[in-house]
């Protein structure tokens, strides 16, 4: 009877037993023949089959010496992968253990060979491909746990055998009994239908294992199955072409491979010994003479490892920036799913791209690697939080999604492309928990090559680095598909930031941010500030609230990033947060001014320029100060704007036409423009004479005329007419005098209410437009009503920058700094919620849409 027929007979026999036994209820006499006799075709036990065949004398001796004869002779339901004597002969001629004959095998080695080839259930090769992941999954299984005990390989290690680092130093002299992992070591098998279902090509398989395969072949790791599904009464035997000894996990392979020593040293930084009480107790029961302790080597990681330091205190939490994505030494690695659960072990494993020592050194000699070398000298000196980013880029959570045939589609956890080519892979290793691709190239994280890199590497930019990490700003700065100009105040110059919330109080304050080395967070010292003179006075208090400081630093980050090149020749550039920067010069001669700097007649200088892959990082000598004046503040304090301002503030506070507001959830430094909405705008202010002429011409009416009008209908019409006239002077999008030539049509804040044809053919219920033309020196405005106006440059009342802040509460609520209220818990709850910015120009004529 052939093997397949035997398998079918077993299935039919078991069904028959179940059916027949169900027919016998209480008094039924059991006359079923197979209750007392085994089928002749069922064969011997696994042990008897191997012993009687004569081709497995070495393997039979393994079973006897390990003490497993009774199990494999009579009981259990096992799957056993075995090797014939001729395979052992080849093994003794060349193996990593250095043994040249059976008698040189230690008991531990014998246990490993036997138990690693044993699965504690009976599986045909065909059914090994299936697993249960909440429901039956067919034809995609890659791994399955073996009978290996973690206690089969307890080793005493000391000295240079232990990883570097203070967490290991205590055991370096005396030694430590160490488990490389406390989970089982699985078999990895490549079955024909699994390869087809997962999409592993023959070329993939060759690159991964180093061996060729033909259609229908089955391999366990790189060992070919030459006979399969030998049916015994207590399980199945599958014969391998060569002796199988347990591969290590990925982390241990890296430690053992001399070509990967640098990469391995970096990874070992995140490992530590943890006392294993359960395994110690079990081992002492097995070996009563053992009185020492057993430790397990663990890695600091988000999945499968530890998130607190050894010592028993689980509150000693490891910084999340020092966690690897998963434990590379976890034998039973399982991929974590989006719902927090884990995939079945059989479904997948991990992968690592491990650059050779040569590749690691070559990287330091060019590109972004040169910055690392200049800053740290060598890989071993690079701080842990930076190396964690590097390792994370090279660690793949799914082998199935990291096949050579799909390298061109690989992206990291932050959706950034990994530029690996199949030609980069010089070797590969299949470990019990994943595949290691040995590569001739390094794949640095975007952090190293982006405008964020200089901040990450510098000891002088800890404040901004903390701000970037706190506010999840890395991904934005790391986009290699964009180009940025990133201004970074260095720590020594990080002072005199005027806090907008405090600016709206009776006693304003300036902040100096500084990095607290003890707590590893940013603090800020509070100083008196005189807004009239711009002078910073004595220190008042220290703020430690990470929430408040993170909020202010996020606002700073938004105003220190420009999308694009600020050396393109323009004078004004928008930041990410919508603020305008005035820029002059180039390179280290660049001078920058925010609106607040222009107000205070100060400039920001550049101390260092670093070109990166997605733009330029400029280290600057102070924070760029955004405008402290709102549109309301600018208009109210400028006499030349008084006629226009008086019209704006005349609307009754309770009316829907009001322009300036200060209300709940809309608090600013003073008053905000009602119809501004987190965008950038232009405000055109006609000269006082132009406003007076418009009144004389009857285009609009003064508030005195409106308020003395007794006919309510007429009065309401005058108010509506004035509101629509004024709103036509507010334009979406900021435009500046002195930038390149352009012509654009922009929307205003006035809605068209009729079907009359106008210059720009604006439809009814759409916003009226303005046509803005610049020759690079002057700006001309064209109106819907076929009128025009020009920006007045004679008195310098143009390109005035303003900002309408919105805070989460009224600044008046918080105590004054001279009352020690500025560091209070109330004030530390204050937040900049959002803002709108506007540039203000004086123009020589009023703007009319009809």
List keywords for this structure.
single chain, 850 residues, alpha+beta, FAS1 domain, seven-stranded mixed β-sheet, 38 strands, FAS1_domain
Describe this entry's structure for a reader:
It is a single chain. With 850 residues, the chain is α+β, with helices and mostly antiparallel strands. Among the domains are: 1-37; 271-334 and 344-448, no CATH class; 450-620, FAS1 domain (Roll); 631-843, FAS1 domain (Roll), CATH 2.30.180.10. Helix content is 27%, strand content 24%. The chain is built from 28 helices and 38 strands. A hairpin with a 2-residue loop joins strand 16 and strand 17. Helix 3 crosses helix 6 (107-116) and helix 11 crosses helix 12 (261-268). The longest helix is centred in the N-terminal third of the chain and has 21 residues, at 3-23. It starts with a helix and ends in a 7-residue tail after the last strand. Mean pLDDT is 91; it is low at 1-37.
Write the layout of secondary structure elements.
Blueprint: H1 3-23, H2 46-53, H3 57-66, H4 69-74, E1 78-83, H5 85-93, H6 107-116, E2 118-119, H7 125-128, E3 131-132, E4 136-137, E5 143-145, E6 155-157, H8 166-169, E7 176-179, E8 186-190, H9 192-198, H10 202-209, E9 219-220, E10 223-232, E11 235-240, H11 250-256, H12 261-268, E12 271-275, H13 277-286, E13 294-299, E14 350-355, H14 357-363, H15 368-376, H16 384-394, E15 395-396, E16 425-431, E17 434-439, H17 446-449, H18 453-457, H19 462-470, H20 474-477, E18 484-489, E19 497-498, H21 500-503, E20 509-516, E21 521-530, E22 535-543, H22 546-558, E23 561-563, E24 572-574, E25 580-584, E26 591-593, H23 595-600, E27 604-612, E28 615-620, H24 631-637, H25 642-648, E29 660-661, E30 672-673, E31 680-686, H26 688-696, H27 703-708, H28 712-727, E32 730-732, E33 742-751, E34 767-774, E35 779-783, E36 788-790, E37 800-807, E38 832-843
Parallel strand pairs: 1-11, 7-13, 14-17, 18-28, 31-38
Antiparallel strand pairs: 1-2, 3-4, 5-8, 6-7, 8-9, 9-10, 10-11, 12-13, 14-15, 16-17, 18-23, 19-20, 20-21, 21-22, 24-25, 25-26, 26-27, 27-28, 29-30, 31-32, 33-34, 34-35, 35-36, 37-38
Helix pairs in contact: 3-6, 11-12, 19-22
């Amino acid at each position: 009877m052939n093997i397949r027929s035997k398998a079918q007979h077993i299935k039919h026999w078991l069904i028959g037993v179940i059916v027949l036994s169900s027919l016998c209820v209480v008094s039924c006499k059991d006359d079923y023949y197979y209750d007392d006799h085994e089928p002749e075709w069922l064969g011997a036990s696994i042990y008897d089959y191997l012993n009687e065949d004569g081709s497995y004398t070495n393997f039979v001796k393994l079973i006897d010496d390990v003490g497993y004869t009774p199990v494999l002779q009579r009981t259990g339901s096992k799957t056993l992968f075995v090797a014939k004597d001729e395979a052992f002969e080849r093994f003794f001629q060349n193996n990593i253990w250095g043994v040249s004959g059976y008698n040189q095998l230690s008991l531990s080695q014998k246990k490993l060979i036997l138990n690693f080839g044993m699965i504690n259930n009976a599986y045909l090769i065909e059914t090994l491909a299936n697993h249960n992941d909440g429901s039956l999954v067919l034809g995609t299984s890659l791994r399955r746990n073996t009978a290996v005990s973690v206690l089969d390989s307890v080793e005493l290690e000391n000295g240079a055998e232990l990883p570097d680092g203070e967490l290991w130093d205590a055991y370096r002299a005396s030694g430590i009994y160490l488990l490389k992992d406390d989970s089982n070591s699985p078999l990895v098998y490549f079955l024909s239908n699994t390869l087809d279902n997962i999409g592993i090509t023959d070329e993939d398989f060759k690159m991964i294992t180093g061996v060729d395969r033909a259609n229908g072949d089955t391999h366990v790791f790189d060992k070919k199955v030459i006979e399969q599904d030998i049916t015994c009464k207590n399980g199945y035997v599958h014969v391998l072409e060569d002796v199988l000894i347990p591969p290590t996990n990925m982390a241990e392979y890296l430690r053992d491979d001399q070509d990967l020593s640098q990469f391995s040293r970096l990874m070992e930084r995140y490992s530590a010994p943890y006392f294993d009480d359960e395994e110690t107790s079990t081992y002492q029961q097995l070996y009563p003479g053992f009185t020492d302790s057993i430790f397990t080597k663990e890695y600091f990681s988000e999945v499968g490892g530890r998130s607190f330091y050894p010592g028993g205190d689980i509150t000693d939490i490891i910084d999340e920036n020092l966690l690897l994505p998963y434990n590379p030494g976890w034998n039973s690695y399982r991929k974590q799913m989006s719902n927090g659960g884990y995939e079945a072990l059989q479904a997948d494993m991990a992968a690592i791209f491990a650059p050779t020592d040569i590749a690691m050194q070559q990287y330091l000699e060019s590109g972004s690697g040169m910055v690392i070398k200049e800053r740290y000298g060598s890989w071993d000196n690079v701080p842990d939080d930076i190396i964690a980013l590097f390792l994370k880029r090279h660690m793949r959570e799914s082998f199935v999604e990291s096949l050579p045939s799909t390298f061109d589609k690989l992206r990291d956890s932050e959706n950034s492309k990994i530029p690996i080519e199949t030609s980069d892979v010089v070797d590969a290793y299949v470990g019990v928990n994943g595949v290691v691709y040995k590569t001739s190239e390094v794949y640095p994280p975007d952090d190293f090559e982006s405008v964020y890199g200089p901040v990450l590497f510098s000891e002088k930019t800890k404040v901004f680095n903390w701000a970037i990490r706190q506010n999840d700003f890395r991904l934005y700065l790391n986009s290699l598909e964009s180009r940025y100009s990133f201004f970074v105040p260095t720590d020594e110059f990080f002072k005199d930031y005027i806090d907008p919330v405090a600016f709206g109080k009776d006693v304003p304050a300036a902040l100096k941010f500084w990095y607290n080395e003890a707590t590893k967070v940013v603090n800020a010292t509070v100083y008196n500030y005189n807004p009239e003179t711009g002078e910073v006075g004595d220190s008042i208090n220290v703020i430690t609230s990470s929430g408040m400081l993170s909020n202010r630093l996020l606002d700073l980050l938004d105003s220190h990033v420009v999308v694009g090149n600020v050396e393109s020749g323009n004078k004004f550039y928008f930041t990410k947060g919508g603020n305008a920067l005035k820029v002059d010069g180039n390179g280290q001669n660049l001078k920058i001014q925010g609106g607040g700097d222009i107000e205070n007649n100060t400039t920001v200088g550049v101390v260092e320029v670093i070109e990166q892959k997605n733009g330029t990082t400029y280290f600057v000598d102070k924070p760029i100060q955004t405008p402290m004046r709102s549109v309301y503040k600018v208009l109210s304090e400028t006499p030349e704007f008084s006629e226009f301002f008086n019209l704006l503030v005349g609307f009754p506070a309770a009316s829907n036409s009001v322009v300036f507001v200060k209300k709940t959830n809309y608090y600013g430094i003073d008053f905000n423009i009602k119809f501004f909405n987190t965008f950038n705008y232009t405000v055109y202010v006609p000269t006082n004479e132009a406003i007076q002429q418009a009144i004389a011409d009857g285009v609009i009416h003064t508030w005195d005329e409106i308020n003395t009008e007794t006919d309510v209908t007429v009065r309401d019409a005058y108010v509506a007419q004035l509101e629509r006239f004024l709103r036509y002077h507010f334009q979406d999008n900021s435009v500046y005098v002195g930038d390149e030539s352009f012509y654009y049509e922009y929307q205003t804040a006035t809605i068209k209410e009729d079907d009359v044809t106008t210059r720009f053919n604006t439809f009814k219920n759409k916003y009226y437009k303005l046509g803005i033309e610049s020759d690079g020196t002057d700006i001309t405005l064209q109106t819907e009503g076929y009128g025009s106006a020009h920006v007045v440059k004679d008195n310098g009342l143009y390109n005035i920058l303003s900002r309408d802040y919105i805070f989460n509460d009224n600044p008046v609520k918080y105590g004054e700094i001279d009352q020690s209220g500025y560091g209070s818990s109330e004030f530390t709850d204050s937040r900049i919620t959002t803002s709108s910015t506007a540039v203000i120009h004086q123009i020589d004529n009023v703007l009319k849409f009809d």
